[in-house]
Amino acid sequence: MGKRKRFKRKGSKSSLQNSVANGSIEGLLAEQDVVFRLKRESRLLHRCRNRLSSMIRSERPDEFTCDDVALDTENKDQPRQYTIKRVDPRSFIFRHGTKRVEDYVYRPPSMLVWYTNWTFTHGFLTVFLSFLFAFLILVLGFAVLILIAGNATPECIRVSGENFGYNESEKFADAFALSWTTFTTVGYGMIYTATGTEHENQNECSIIIFLCTAESFIGLLYSGICTALLFGKVGRIESYAQVLFSNMICVQLSDVPSQSSGNEDSLNRLATKRAKVKDGNEDDVPQVLEKEILVPCPVLVFQVINELANALGGEILDASLKALVKTEVTVGGPITRLIKINLEEYEHPFFQRGWLGRHVLNASSPLLTASARTQLSGKENKWPADWNNPRKIRDVLDFHELTVIISGISNTSASTVHGYKRYKLSDTLVGYTFAPVLYKLSKLGKVLLDFNLIHDVNEQGDGRAETLTDHESSETIRWETSLY
User: Fold this and answer.
1) 299-308, pLDDT tens digit by residue?
2) Does the pTM of the predicted model rise above 0.90?
3) Tens of pLDDT along 79-93?
4) CA distance linking residue 368 with residue 366, whole number of Å
5) Domains of the chain, earliest start first
């Protein structure tokens, strides 16, 4: 298995375009494009449908078509757009009474779907309050019906041995008491429907008995629905991966080639050229290198921490880490592309403490601009030395959003868990590494994790790290920093 995976990774070193065409990138999402309509096209389609529906209501459907609107617009060369609907040749009764087997799709009520999804996205207190509100509405509704039926036949409801309405001012209170005790099936015995020994003509009590029976049945259904929703919320908690993601992602610069490697003179001349270029005197510099100096590619790193790292049995078994990047391009219009990127360590059989997800910024990385990938193609996972600085890396990085997903089996609950984190381009720090978070107790020899350090970073040596005060982004972000 290990050899096969290494072989696949060797095959993913080509350019992104060739990798997509050949399907050699492991687990790549074939570039999923999301195309947005232009505003004027949306307005045109909306106007067309409104005018067409108005003509149908006036029984003149043949006097207007959507094509007539297209002739009035400036874009007459746009292709026609149609809405396709199936017309069932069967009669109205049979068409609506049965469903075709091949067309059958379960569609639950939209309100029930909305409320179920709503309970999963809100806290327990909010859900409890919604349960209470629905409970009071149902009880009040049945109380009003019981009040009306009790006024018609007061002998059918017994309140502490007396007929309903014995105390005229407390009629609604008595009806409400009968309603909620019936709805919850509590039945204190202080108020109840009259039996045959208390009222001989039970036919007169049919409405009261029917209301109480229906309310009891609805109460049982309501308690079952509430229990199911709470059970689902508890299951949602069990499926939540108790992990913490770092607030930022770091781009670690490559180490500069050492002087003993024979590149000392080349590096000195390269530094001289950079100084001349900065002063605007590049023409005075001789040709620096016949062969370009290459260094290992920088690596993009993010950190995942297990919240149960210091607890016994808090591991996540058979964990997997995936990353999905969203980029925005303009190819005849705005297009959003979703691409799965390669990670060096994407599987962890026993995730106990911390995990560093690493992605190499090479020629096949979709996090780089197209021009940068073209220049890096054929360099065998190498990076130009004059690119090995924060400013150049900022120029070649190009992505809108990076989503990191972790999944596995919790050793605590034995259930499948998952979690995710979204990073923006502005969350990137160049020239930094994550600080160590583990420490060891000297007496017990136990390794623990310090959760106060999971968002700490260290500058890389030689002063190559960008300063946080110069951190530029399209969004307003302030980094709280502290020096030790």
Assistant:
1) 999 999 999 9
2) no
3) 666 666 666 665 555
4) 5
5) 37-105 (no CATH), 124-238 (1.10.287.70), 243-256+290-467 (2.60.40.1400)
